[in-house]
Structure formats: C-alpha cells, structure tokens
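Researcher: Please translate sequence to structure tokens.
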Amino acid sequence: IPVGAYHYLHGTDEATIRAAADWVYENCYKNKQFELPVWLDVEVQGNPEYTPANKEQTTRVSIAFLNQMASHNMYVGIYSSEGEYNSVLVPSEFASFDKWIAKWSTTPPTTTDFTIWQCSDGTSGQVYIAGVDNDLMYVDYPTFMKNSNYNGYNNQPTPSVITPYVSVIKFNKATDNRKKAYKRKRLINNILIERF
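Model: Translation complete:
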C-alpha cells in the first residue's frame, strides 16, 4: 500500500509552524521513503485549539509549513474540505501546491486543479467502500515519487509521462508561476489535471 502522511495544522505564527515542520521531518520522515505527498491538514473551523486572526494569517502559516517541509525535499500539498479551503484560506495563494479536497458528494469539488478528491466518509457521498474514507487519486504519485528526488527517493527526474486518471491539458511553462519543484513535476509529466 502506498504510504503518505498528513500533519494537522496547529500554531498561529510562522516561526512555530516552521519549527513544527522541522521536528516532524526529523522525527517522522527523515531517512524514510513515502510514495504519496506529505499533506498539511487544514481543519480549523470549530477547533478551539486554533484561533487564527483571519484567513490571510491561516494562509501564511499554512504556506510556511509547506515551504519548510519542501525545503527537506518532501513533496507537499494541502488537505481541506472544500468549504474550509474556500472560507479559511486564500485559495489563489496555493496555486503551486497539490490539493486534496474533501467533499462528501457524488459531484466533484469545484476547486480547480485538485489531485485527490475525498468523496466520502464511508457513509455519505460517493461511497465505494463502507466504513472508511473514500478518496479518488487523479495523479500516479507512487510512480512519480519513485522516479524523483522527493520523499526519500534519490533518483534524478527522468522525462516520462504519467498516465493520469482524468483528461489533461498541456503545461505552459511560459505563463505558469508555480514554485520550481512543482514546475519540475509538471514538466516531467507534461500534464496538469483539468478542471471537472
């Protein structure tokens, strides 16, 4: 079974969250291989332990964690429900990160360019297997990781096309302002996930 991980967002300042990312890397990921990304789980609504001042602060703190983890050559992304992604974060600031969006429904999220859709909690939404979260992955992360230098794999990226599970559009490096690591992934695959 391919392995990834996610870290629950805590801490409301960038220094604290960067230190948390370093600690998590040193104690959980260093010298290990993960076939799936490391996700930052943003679930702050109704959480008494997390009281950000506003969505801009939550966005800054989230990006600080993701960038710090990426500095350790970990391939990272953001996980959130569609509602929280749009209400407690500034979505445009996450253009350079993969997205795992939870929307327990039979219709996909309207959030653009998500790579994983959590379609059910096992009881509602698009249920494939009862009693567990159901997720649809639209990128072949295991193949990508094994051919990359991310998440404990030390291969140099080689030109290859990963067959996606949905329709694709061509990557336009001239107009895309994504971070370097993300560009490398997309250039290797020469694909982007098309909006549903």
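Researcher: Any highlights?
Model: The chain has a mean pLDDT of 78.
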